[in-house]
């Protein structure tokens, strides 16, 4: 399809058409463009980012085809198509593309399980079909057209998921996917805000199946059954399934007026339901019980996101195993490219499947991607990639198999390694070999959620207002290098840390944006100039020490002046201002970057009057200083709590802290934020304790009746405080909150799992979506800050990204 043909399916105006070529790719983010001829850049004017600001970036990367929502300054050799809504235009374009293919397409929707069902179906059918599917959880108004665009003539089955958050969305996605077979996974409370009630949400989701031939769903979901009967056409066949009997891991299912008996490796209710959706779909496709059971036996857990983990020899490993395709490689390389913690970048890649390209074309494309992403070392594993070694012009090594590679004893050193491979290569063995060994407790940090929160707070600001993000105390426990690197990538204006050594480590790990240090002692003055750091100056004595250290130097580090307005912590008082001004006038080479203060009660409406008093005092004091200067420093006073509550006090910059991690101190914006961190581990052992026996140190826990306990490998040395012992704290195991019993130990905690199905190895959620950090803080009468920052450094951090 040529660019000029957009007029056939999209309502819009062709502003300029010096170039009319076939459309080869779609892009909406200039940072993720894999440069090749025929890419169309869709400039989307979103709530937090305006894609029109990045048109020049896309042009510099070679893009010459643009769909825009407003008239822009046009390059003479580029083509521009003006539309009202760029996402709608993308959907219309992909709808035209979809019509060209008449092979079966499975559309999946529901409240939960969409991505798992899609991935498991692909696992079960990957040797029967050449499958095109949504990458990871691409199921939005934007993700669906990007997924469907990947359909090609070499495929013979499509599997796409669709998610919605409000009415009117599914009809648009149905026209893009045009499914021939449907799966309705379930109906739950997720994303309820956009609907009046559950019935309206169910009916909206059912619109995906308006023209399908069959729909698979669980008969136990009566509301799903009800809305499907009303939504589908008379020609559509409803295919409900139901579990009639279950004993251990044996499940008897009725579907299509037949009875099937399956043995499942998963036993939690959500996984069982997801598995049965897949089994019923294979039965509908005509496969017998023996074939389906063999496919069920080989199912493997799905990694929903890229995971970046600490690795041996001061390295990192990005785990993207089990899934390998060209588009997924582009996404993973983009993520790798954003990481600046280490300069050296290495990619370990297996053979790629189902691309529709010859090996020569395919691996030439891979080589181009590696070169454009500045990959220093490449390791290819597999027969096909071995045979195509001549296509690679980066430093490369090749191995026939994963076993051969492991036997060679590869060891990274101060580098970031992307491991990406097809499922049958078992690249998890490589990740396990490279990963830094630590005990099993991990803190998962969801980078997508973190950026959602950043953008939410940005949406509260005027365009000219800058933002400083506090990354002190290991970025509130989340990992300062990784989070600071992400914030730098997303162009925050400043970072704030508590001490100079934190800032120096950030500089050593590739952070170059301005950093303000809150507590600087004379012993660390020497570091400021060397590492381009900006100290907070809060007293005359400190200022004089600073000036004495840099005496006779003209190029002084810039400073930030802290004013005391009511916090009664650090800062210049009004009585100090004249002497401060005298020093500033005497030292013309000293640059004041900002004047600021700190609100003591911005998170509590009971202190609104005091906050206004602080603001008035700040205005008065800062004005006195600024009148004495020949330039205008920035002013800032609000922290997270003040960003939403006091927009009139945003001044030139705001400081974002705990809000970045999904906690609104005012509790008024909490529903708009996403939880960033989850602390997880696995059950070490399950024990039966007879009535009357004691449990743990000090014998504070007692079994009042025959009790089952689970021993969890986390204790106060990991940050799980002793205050959580003796039933105060709870953990989530297999969907059930279970209380602690006895005292929390240094490295272990015991929980009461009486009546709950628990075994050794089961996942334990200490905090996350449930129980939340806020709940933990409430249990022990503290604040979320303390819970987060208490997670010790011996707990391994894993960073997740789509």
Strand order of the largest sheet: 18-17-16-19-15-14-38-20-29-37-34-35
State the helical fraction.
Answer: 25-40%
Average pLDDT, all residues: 90
Measured between the Cα atoms of the first and last residue, the distance is: 29 Å
Shape: globular
Sequence stretches where pLDDT stays below 50 over 5 or more residues = none
Total number of helices:
26
Strand content: 15-25%
Radius of gyration: 29 Å
How many domain regions? 5
What structural class should be given to the helix and strand makeup? alpha/beta
CATH class (first level) name of the largest domain: Alpha Beta
Keywords: Isomerase, Ligase, Pyridoxal phosphate
Pathway: Amino-acid biosynthesis; D-alanine biosynthesis; D-alanine from L-alanine: step 1/1
Cofactor: pyridoxal 5'-phosphate
Protein name: Alanine racemase
Short summary of the structure?
The protein is an alpha/beta fold.
Could you please describe the fold and organization of this structure?
The chain is of the alpha/beta class and 802 residues long. Helices cover 30% and strands 23% of the residues. Helix 11 packs parallel to helix 12. The two termini are 29 Å apart. The mean pLDDT is 90. Its cofactor is pyridoxal 5'-phosphate. It holds the Pfam family Mur_ligase. Catalyzes the interconversion of L-alanine and D-alanine. May also act on other amino acids. Its EC number is 5.1.1.1.
Which features characterize this protein?
Protein-Tyrosine Phosphatase, Chain A; alpha/beta; UDP-N-acetylmuramoyl-L-alanine:D-glutamate ligase; 12-stranded mixed beta sheet; 802 residues; globular; 38 strands; single chain; 30% helix; Udp-n-acetylmuramoylalanyl-d-glutamate--2,6- Diaminopimelate Ligase, Chain: A, domain 1; 5 domains; 8-stranded mixed beta sheet
């Amino acid at each position: 399809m040529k660019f000029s043909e957009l007029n056939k399916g999209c309502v819009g105006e062709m502003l300029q058409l010096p170039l009319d070529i076939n459309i080869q790719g779609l892009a909406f983010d200039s940072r993720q463009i894999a440069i090749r001829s025929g890419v169309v850049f869709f400039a989307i004017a979103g709530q937090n980012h305006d894609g029109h600001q990045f048109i020049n970036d896309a042009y510099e990367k070679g893009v010459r085809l643009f769909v825009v929502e407003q008239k822009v300054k046009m390059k003479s050799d580029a083509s521009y198509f003006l539309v009202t809504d760029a996402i709608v235009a993308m959907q219309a374009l992909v709808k035209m593309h979809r019509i060209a293919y008449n092979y079966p397409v499975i559309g999946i929707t529901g409240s939960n399980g969409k991505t798992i069902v899609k991935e498991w179906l692909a696992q079960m059918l990957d040797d029967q079909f050449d499958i095109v599917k949504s990458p990871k959880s691409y199921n939005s108004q934007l993700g669906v057209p990007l997924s469907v665009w990947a359909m090609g003539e070499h495929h013979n089955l499509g599997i796409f998921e669709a998610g919605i958050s409000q009415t009117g969305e599914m009809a648009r996605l149905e026209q893009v996917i045009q499914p021939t077979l449907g799966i309705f996974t379930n109906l739950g409370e997720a994303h309820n805000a956009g609907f009046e009630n559950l019935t309206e949400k169910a009916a909206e989701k059912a619109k995906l199946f308006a023209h399908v031939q069959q729909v698979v769903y669980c008969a136990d979901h009566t509301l799903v059954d009800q809305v499907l009967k009303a939504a589908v056409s008379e020609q559509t066949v409803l295919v409900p399934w139901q579990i009639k009997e279950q004993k251990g891991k044996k499940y008897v299912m009725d579907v299509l007026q037949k009875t099937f008996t399956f043995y499942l490796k998963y036993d939690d209710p959500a996984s069982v339901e997801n598995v049965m959706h897949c089994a019923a779909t294979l039965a509908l496709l005509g496969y017998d019980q023996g074939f389906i059971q063999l496919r069920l036996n080989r199912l493997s857990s799905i990694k929903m996101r890229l995971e970046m983990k600490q690795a041996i020899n001061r390295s990192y490993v990005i785990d993207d195993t089990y899934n390998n395709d060209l588009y997924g490689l582009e996404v993973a390389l983009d993520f790798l490219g954003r990481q600046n913690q280490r300069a050296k970048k290495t990619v370990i890649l297996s053979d790629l499947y189902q691309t529709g390209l010859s090996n020569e074309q395919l691996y030439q494309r891979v080589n181009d991607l590696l070169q454009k992403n500045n990959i220093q070392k490449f390791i290819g594993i597999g027969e096909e990639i071995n045979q195509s070694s001549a296509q690679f012009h980066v430093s490369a090594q090749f191995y026939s198999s994963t076993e051969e590679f492991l036997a060679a004893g590869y060891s990274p050193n101060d580098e970031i390694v992307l491991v990406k491979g097809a499922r049958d290569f078992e690249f998890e063995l490589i990740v396990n070999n490279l990963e830094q060994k630590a005990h099993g407790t991990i803190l998962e940090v969801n980078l997508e959620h973190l950026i959602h929160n950043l953008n939410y707070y940005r949406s509260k600001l005027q365009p000219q207002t800058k933002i400083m993000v506090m990354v002190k105390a290991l970025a509130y426990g989340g990992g300062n290098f990784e989070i600071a690197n992400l914030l730098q990538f997303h162009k925050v204006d400043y970072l704030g840390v508590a001490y100079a050594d934190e800032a120096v480590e950030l500089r050593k790990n590739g952070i170059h944006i301005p950093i303000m240090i809150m507590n600087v002692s004379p012993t660390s003055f020497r570091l400021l100039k060397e590492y381009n750091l900006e100290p907070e100056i809060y007293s005359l004595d400190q200022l004089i020490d600073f000036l004495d250290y840099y005496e006779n130097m003209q190029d002084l580090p810039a400073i930030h002046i802290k004013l005391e307005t009511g916090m009664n912590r650090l800062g210049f008082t009004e009585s100090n201002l004249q002497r401060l001004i005298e020093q500033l006038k005497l030292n013309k080479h000293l640059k004041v970057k900002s004047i600021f203060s700190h609100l003591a009660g911005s998170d509590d409406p009971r202190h609104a009057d005091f906050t206004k008093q602080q603001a008035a005092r700040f205005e008065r004091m800062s004005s006195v200083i600024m009148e004495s200067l020949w330039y205008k420093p920035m002013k800032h006073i609000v922290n997270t709590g003040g960003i939403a509550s006091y927009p009139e006090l945003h001044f030139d910059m705001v400081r974002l802290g705990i809000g970045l991690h999904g906690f609104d101190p005012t509790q008024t914006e909490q529903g708009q934020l996403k939880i960033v961190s989850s602390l997880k581990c696995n059950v070490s052992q399950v024990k039966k304790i007879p009535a009357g026996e004691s449990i743990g140190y000090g014998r504070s826990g007692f079994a009042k009746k025959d009790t089952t306990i689970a021993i969890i490998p986390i204790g106060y040395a990991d940050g799980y405080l002793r205050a959580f012992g003796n039933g105060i704290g709870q953990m989530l195991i297999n969907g059930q909150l279970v209380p602690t019993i006895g005292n929390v130990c240094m490295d272990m905690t015991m929980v009461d799992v009486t009546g709950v199905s628990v075994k050794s190895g089961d996942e334990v959620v200490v905090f996350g979506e449930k129980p939340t950090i806020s709940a933990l803080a409430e249990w022990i009468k503290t604040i979320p800050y303390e819970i987060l920052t208490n997670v010790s450094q011996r707990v391994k951090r894993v960073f997740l990204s789509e």
